Amino acid sequence: MKNIAVLGAGVLGSQVAWQAAFHGMNVSVYDISPEALQKAREKHREFAVLFQEKYHVTEEETKNALKRLRYFENLAEAVQDADITSESVPEVLEIKKDFYRKLAAVAPEKTIFTTNSSTMIPSMFSQETGRPEKFLAMHFANPVWEANIAEVMGHAGTQKAVFDAVVDFTREMGMVPVPLYKEQPGYVINSLLSPFLSAAANLYFNGVADYKTIDKTWMISTGARSGPFGIMDLVGMQTMYNVMMLKAKQTGNPDALKRAEAIKTQFIDKGKMGIASGEGFYRYPNPAYKDPDFLK
User: Fold this and answer.
1) CATH of domain 3-180
2) Is the CB of residue 147 less than 8 Å from the CB of residue 129?
């Protein structure tokens, strides 16, 4: 599989597209928003510079990666040659269902569909794909090339040959495959991460300690590069809100709803979306937790 269509040009979608292009794949990037596509183009140019400066790759390598990237506002054109897709549309079930109905109508029969959903399992919308046997999750962490795991999770109707082909595909992308043999909300990484972030949010929103103290405690105790609130900024406030709202609906827990509303009013409504917007709990590109004196 050499042709991948990345559907959704947000933070993670842009990274997946770059990772695939850098590893020699032809990449079509689709988004309904021309502004999102323009931001993706800019991000890819930034990634080219980053890879040269931080990872010491050649200018020729990054130029070749940029040449493999194409951008589309038309879904049918984006997927016309696709061997596989990677979907990163918003984490709202009805949006995903509607998107897959539209995708199924225009994608070639050969195309394998994958979702990068962080909060939903494939069986929740497998029937809308029109090809449930060729549908599964291929989930990435942020940033893709540093947290280079790819969690591959099918559903009961996924063909084993398709599952195995996607595991092999992730290796070709430069990822370490993490195969999951049954559906698990949160996969491996978020099954570990979500309780951690939830515990941090409880401490902060209940007034037990401020977010910098909580981050500092975690960083000093574990040697981590950032704490839970730095991770929240990385994940992004919209995703944090969606995850908290989903938990509130699933559990009926009023505290989860309060946390979600707090994220909305204190951050999203003020344009503080996390690293992507330059501000969340911290301001970027130089957050306080990277200051040498932060841990003193």
Assistant:
1) 3.40.50.720
2) no
